[in-house]
Amino acid sequence: MPEWLRRFLLIDLIQGMLVTFRTQHPKYINTEQYPEERPRVAERYRGAPRLNINPENGETLCIACDLCAIACPENLIVVGSVRNPETRRKELTTFTYDLSRCMFCGLCEDACPVDALELTQDFELASFTREGQIWDRQMLEEGPRPSPYR
Ligand code: SF4
Ligand code: SF4
Known about the structure:
Blueprint: H1 3-8, H2 11-22, E1 49-51, H3 67-71, E2 77-83, E3 90-98, H4 107-111, E4 117-119, E5 134-135, H5 137-142
Antiparallel strand pairs: 1-4, 2-3, 3-5
């Protein structure tokens, strides 16, 4: 068929529309029905950080060694601590983690000697403000606050 006739009869358009309509059948639809259906993330996916607590006594596993903060190439972790004069051990007071600068490389998690810091499979990290991306110790231990305006 000559090119001009092909263009005149809109053959390419019709062929394209045929492809489109052929894939309208529900069996071809791959849209995930999020949030009703939760997508499965890869086993090794690294998402929201969590500061683990000891399930037996409810105390943090973090020993405030600062190794995660030193390992982080973005310097986004800030660990606050005080030294207990009786035990001579450092005790965690504050912990902040700026998610907006995190590249989820996992170096902080690897550096932690007591598995206190963990990057979980939770991928819902959106917030309306930059401040909402800075997770404090409570958020890291209990999960992000439910408010949509954080
Ligand atoms: S995952 Fe990487 S960038 Fe994010 S806090 Fe840990 S070390 Fe830093
Ligand atoms: S490396 Fe682990 S134990 Fe040390 S300050 Fe970070 S989270 Fe706490």
